[in-house]
């Protein structure tokens, strides 16, 4: 599980910023929101628009993209635009099989130089600087590499994985399995990226998995609706069919006699249906679920339901999400150490405040505390005319 990330000169995070995902002293929700490793199952980022919340999600997503999707990415877009420094740093810490994995990436897009270091329990297994590297990942034998093996656009860790699958190193194999199970969702534009073999885009998911798991979720949580996936629907009175030979989703509600095509459903129902396959998939595996713009079209209680559903059903997976819905800021859903406010201070860039730093008690209303400014992360609009 991802236990910490340290950003420096990355996007809006100009100064070194450490974001800890490990549990603190709080005892409530211990069996639900905290994994056996002591790492938290979920983190919420809240704050004003353009404060830098999504950049934390992007920092985690970038690692997944570079390892499993795109090996050539324009690195210049990730360097802090209002900093004179040429390089940005991403430092990831994971807890895998009771071992600490640290993976440090330093990227200088101006000089086109990549640096990487990989540690397991402080033992250096990979050290790469530009076009030279040494690694003892395989069989604990140190191997040297040069420009014939490396290029300045690709993570060498990616190359080693696809060439060797980390044969003989079970810890790294488990780590990469965890990373490949991960999923990115932008709820606003309904974009879903699965980094493993599971296709979680709605129509592809329904073609392979059917509707049972989604309808079981609806029935269990009293949605009073189910879905059907077919080319046409007929109830004897009305006949609906798709314009071509493809299938589409029809919603069947208990309180009406007909069905509603997906395109005619509410924004919230469409968004829910697009992200449900990812939620169902990730809780049965070990991986990371990244959700940007989580509050897109959802009723407050639906957001609460999805977060509770994840925390109660996942064992070793994590969710990192951005939301503006302050109703989630309650100790019945999240612990104070699971919430960060994100702030932006002009030329100094983004910075964070963890709610647990103020040591709120279980009985306190942390939503009201946030809205009153205790935890920072509020816009400073002038409402007077």
Automatic annotation (TrEMBL):
Domain named ATPase AAA-type core: residues: 45-329
Record PANTHER family: ATPASE AAA-TYPE CORE DOMAIN-CONTAINING PROTEIN, ATPASE-LIKE PROTEIN
A GO term for molecular function: ATP binding
Protein name: AAA family ATPase
């Amino acid at each position: 599980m991802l236990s910490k990330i340290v950003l420096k000169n990355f996007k809006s995070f100009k100064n070194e910023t450490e974001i800890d995902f490990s549990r603190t002293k709080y005892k409530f929700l211990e069996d639900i929101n905290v994994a056996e490793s002591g790492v938290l199952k979920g983190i919420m980022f809240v704050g004003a628009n353009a404060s830098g919340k999504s950049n934390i999600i992007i920092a985690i997503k970038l690692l997944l993209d570079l390892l499993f999707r795109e090996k050539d990415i324009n690195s210049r877009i990730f360097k802090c635009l209002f900093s004179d420094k040429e390089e940005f740093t991403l430092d990831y810490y994971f807890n895998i099989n009771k071992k600490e994995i640290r993976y440090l990436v330093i990227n200088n897009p101006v000089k086109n130089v990549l640096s990487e270091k990989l540690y397991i329990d402080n033992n250096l297994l990979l050290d790469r600087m530009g076009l030279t590297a040494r690694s003892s990942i395989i069989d604990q034998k140190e191997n040297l590499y040069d420009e014939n093996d490396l290029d300045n656009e690709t993570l060498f860790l990616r190359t080693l994985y696809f060439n060797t699958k980390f044969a003989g190193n079970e810890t790294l194999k488990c780590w990469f399995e965890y990373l490949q199970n991960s999923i990115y969702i932008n709820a606003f534009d309904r974009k879903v990226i699965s980094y493993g073999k599971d296709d979680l885009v709605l129509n592809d998911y329904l073609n392979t998995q059917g509707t049972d798991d989604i309808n079981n979720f609806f029935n269990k949580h009293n949605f009073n609706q189910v879905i059907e996936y077919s080319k046409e629907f007929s109830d004897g009175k009305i006949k609906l069919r798709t314009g071509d030979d493809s299938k589409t989703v029809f919603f069947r509600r208990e309180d009406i006699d007909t069905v509603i095509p997906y395109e005619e459903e509410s924004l919230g129902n469409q968004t829910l249906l697009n992200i449900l396959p990812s939620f169902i998939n990730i809780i049965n595996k070990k991986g990371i679920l990244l959700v940007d713009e989580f509050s897109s079209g959802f009723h407050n209680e639906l957001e609460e339901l999805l977060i509770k559903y994840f925390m109660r059903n996942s064992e070793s997976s994590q969710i990192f999400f951005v939301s503006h819905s302050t109703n989630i800021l309650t100790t019945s859903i999240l612990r104070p150490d699971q919430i960060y406010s994100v702030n932006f201070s002009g030329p100094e860039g983004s910075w964070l405040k963890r709610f647990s730093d103020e040591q709120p008690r279980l009985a306190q209303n942390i939503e009201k505390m946030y809205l009153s400014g205790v935890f920072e992360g509020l816009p400073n609009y002038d409402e007077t005319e």
